[in-house]
Amino acid sequence: MNLKELSKQLNLSQTTVSRALNGYPEVNEATRKRVTEAARKYRYRPNVRARTLATGKSMSIGHIIPMSKQNELVNMVFSDFIAGAGLVYADHGYNMTLTIVKDDDELEAYRGFAERGAVDGVIVQAPTREDRRISFLADLDIPFVVHGRASQIRAPYGWLDVNNKRAIQTATKHLLSLGHHRIAMLNGLETLDFAVRRRDGYLAALREANIPPDDSLMRSNDMSEPNGYEAAMELLALKAPPTAFVASSMILALGVKRAIEENNLEMGKDVSVICFDDDISYLPNAGDTPLFTALRSSVRAAGARCASLLIERINKPDAPLPNELWEAELVHGASTGPGPNA
User: Fold this and answer.
1) What is the largest CA-CA distance in the chain?
2) Which CATH fold would you assign to the domain 164-297?
3) CA distance 181 to 62
4) Which of 18, 103, 153, 202 is the most exposed place for a label (fewest CB within 10 A)?
5) pLDDT of residue 52
6) CB-based contacts of 191: which residues, under 8 Å, 6+ apart?
7) What is the DSSP letter of 68?
8) DSSP states of 215-245
9) Quick one: average pLDDT of 96-110?
């Protein structure tokens, strides 16, 4: 079915149908929904080349991955984020351009996107505290949204983030309420902004309980199962081992669980574990009693929302920059129980 036939089926002008499919703001939401549902029903596929010439848009969204982070392509969290974003792109007629570059060429890759008009916008992921990509993209005047925040950037920019500090503060306070005082923290790489915020939450909870922080109980590394396992094995071998762990991801927590079992201990009874859960599609922490007590926030939903915010930014470049802070939900599971000070 072509545009003319779809327009006739809907009894709308071709201009209205085209604008609805391309996300123009002057089309009301009811009409846009009617048009997109009809396009899906009749399997209408626009002529991308013709639309690009007509609108001046590439109808593509860019994601750039430095080679040092190319393992992100098989990371379940990254994959879920991309899956969520990809569905929104498809609904709005956008393609995804995923580019892997040498680390030193990352900024120039963004410049190439902008100068060639190869993409209409980009999503920035895993920001550092002083992430140079943000000011660089602002100078290029290309629409972008950041998944996360950069604490040291004062200039305004669009972002969506989860309240990482409060999530881990809540997790640590939950363990304290169960009677755990010797609590280990397994964090992500603290060059990344989210990990700094999570450590701040852990330390804030200890301060509130008048418990001095112990550097020997804190670890920072890539959030993988082997790293969680190795860190937990080291900590459980201490003369005064922790009675509980706060893990910055469920993947780290799985490594902690393996270490607990290899030490002939029982998770939730001898040692408690609480984690941050990105609600990963391929690794659900589900069931009537989830495996882990966790602070849950869906990274797939975050990907979808970042994509929506970016497309809105592309269509309404003069609108206020989006800033959204999501709260994580405490989910009670089988991995936590009373501590020695209960």
Assistant:
1) 77
2) Rossmann fold (3.40.50)
3) 46
4) 103
5) 52
6) 128, 129
7) G
8) GGGEEE----HHHHHHHHHHHHTSSS--SEE
9) 91
Q: Any idea which residue has 């009301």 for tokens?
A: 28
Token pair recorded at residue 280: 């990963």
Nearest one of 335, 295, 339 to 178, comparing CA atoms: 339
Determine the 3-state secondary structure of 22 from DSSP. coil
Domain range summary for the chain, segments of one domain joined by +: 3-46, 60-162+300-326, 164-297
CB environment 252-288: b (16+ within 10 A), e (fewer):
bbbbbbbbbeeeeeebbeebbbbbbbbbbeeeebeee
Taking a C-beta distance cutoff of 8 angstroms, is the pair 255, 232 a contact?
Answer: yes
Amino acid found at 207: R
Closest CA to 328 of 257, 220, 246, 252: 246
> Confidence band (pLDDT; 50, 70, 90) for 70?
low
Nearby residues of 310 by Cβ (< 8 Å), 6 or more positions away: 61, 121, 122, 123, 143, 144, 145, 158
Please write the tens of the pLDDT for every residue from 24-64: 667 888 888 888 888 888 877 665 555 554 556 789 999 99
CATH architecture of 3-46: Orthogonal Bundle (1.10)
- CATH topology match: 60-162+300-326 vs 164-297: yes
Nearest to 218 by CA among 240, 203, 207, 239: 203
Determine how β-strand 293-296 pairs with β-strand 329-331.
antiparallel
In this structure, the chain runs to a length of 342
Q: Give the CATH superfamily of 60-162+300-326.
A: Response regulator (3.40.50.2300)
Cβ proximity of 107 and 132 under 8 Å: yes
Q: Yes or no: say if 239 and 210 are a contact pair by the CB < 8 Å rule.
A: no
